Amino acid sequence: MSTPVLDLQGVAFAYPDGHQALHGVDLHVHQGERVALLGPNGAGKTTLVLHLNGILSPGLGTVSISGLPVTKDNLLEVRRRVGIVFQDPDDQLFMGSVREDVAFGPRNLGLRGQELDRRVMDALEAVGMAAYADRPPHHLSYGQRRRVAVATVLAMQPEILVLDEPSSNLDPASRRELAEILTSLDVTLMLVTHDLPYALELCPRSVILSDGVVAADGPTRDILGDEQLMASHRLELPFGFVLSSRA
Q1: Which among 34, 135, 230, 231 could bridge 235 via Cys, Cβ 3.0 to 4.6 Å?
Q2: Does any domain span residue 247?
């Protein structure tokens, strides 16, 4: 089998105050997979994500991206390969125009001229925001800003796109539009979410992280349909949501 795009082996991590957030996590994601990372608050999801691009380093175990170890010496390339879209788009948008925000990362890699322009417009086209390239980000709706935040990461041509609660604070139309964009992207996807219907819509595979360990890993429909598993990890589908029996 090919080298995983994302490979965590025995990853354990404790914060300086002694809190053990991860207890030996094994997780392997291959090219083109769309995986939802589920779990209650405090399960270790954010801690795990911060290991993917070297913001945190494991006390034990290893993390690698397409065979490249996530170490201090490799951080520049790791952060190109792993694009993280934060929950609040305003954490990623700080320039005077949409175009400048999307160009920021590739420009720091040394791209200039037509190559940079093409990279920016390709990313904006992918999220349906090319017509807004010269608008100030703060003039956009929240849903539009979230799409531009995705474009800032896509412009780096990452191998894996990680999104933290991508559906939060979106109205139903914006939520659906973002889902359509994400399913159209030719990139490995990891979704960190409490929105279980969104996980079902976007990700064929789900992983439950609970108390710093992988508690379940399998088809999303099977996991969401296992009432005992869901209850034991404080996961609930929305009231009235019916899990259909379709394959």
Answers
A1: 230
A2: no
